[in-house]
Amino acid sequence: MSIPNIITLGRILLVPVIVWAIASNQMEIAFALFIVAGVSDAVDGFLAKRFNMASELGALLDPLADKALLVSIYVALGIESAIPRWLVILVVSRDIMIVGAVIVSWVFGKPIPMKPLMVSKLNTVAQVGFAALILAALGFGFSPQPYDLILMGTVAVLTLLSVSFYLVEWTKHMGTIERSH
Fold it and tell me: Which of 116, 37, 131 lies closest to 82 in space, CA to CA?
């Protein structure tokens, strides 16, 4: 168990605490812990690359931690009516579709290589920025307008583009499976 993996596991353990903070209307705490989670993501990535501590487990845990954090925060903020539910549905559905496609490819014995696309990386940055802005606005009592609308639109567009690109790649990948008659 490497230091980056321990940091990633810590980030996963922060998820229920952040959700509790949102549900308890402790937005300052939720925002602070979200920042801690973001910094920990940067630190574990830096350590893994800089000190050659990258591992197969870390390659699986890191995106899992990111998805658990973002999906949980979006769902919690949606339940609290802090962000539109349609956006929550869009963000969560994208992740479910991608995970479902990966599982189907495994079931058919044709695992698809997991390589994040640039649009997906940009999508994650936009999702993090939007969540941070909303948590900060709720926690510190300021109006996030018009930045919230700009980021929300950016998240929606990048989420749709990201899932579209992944589905195109997956369809091409799966199209190479021989049909049985």
Answer: 131
Q: Provide the 8-state DSSP code for 98.
A: H
Average pLDDT over residues 83-107: 94
pLDDT digits (tens, 9 = 90+) for 125-172: 999 999 999 999 999 999 999 999 999 999 999 999 999 999 999 999
Q: Around 55, how many Cα atoms within 13 Å sit in the side-chain half-sphere?
A: 13
| Alpha carbons 169 and 143: distance in angstroms, whole number | 40
Helices 27-50 and 56-79: crossing angle, nearest 10°? 160
Closest CA relative to residue 104, chosen from 24, 16, 56, 175: 175
Model pLDDT, residue 175 = 87
Phi, psi of 92 (to 5 degrees): -70, -40
Looking at the chain, the whole-number percentage of residues with pLDDT higher than 70 is 97
Q: Is the separation of the CB atoms in 86 and 152 below 8 Å?
A: no
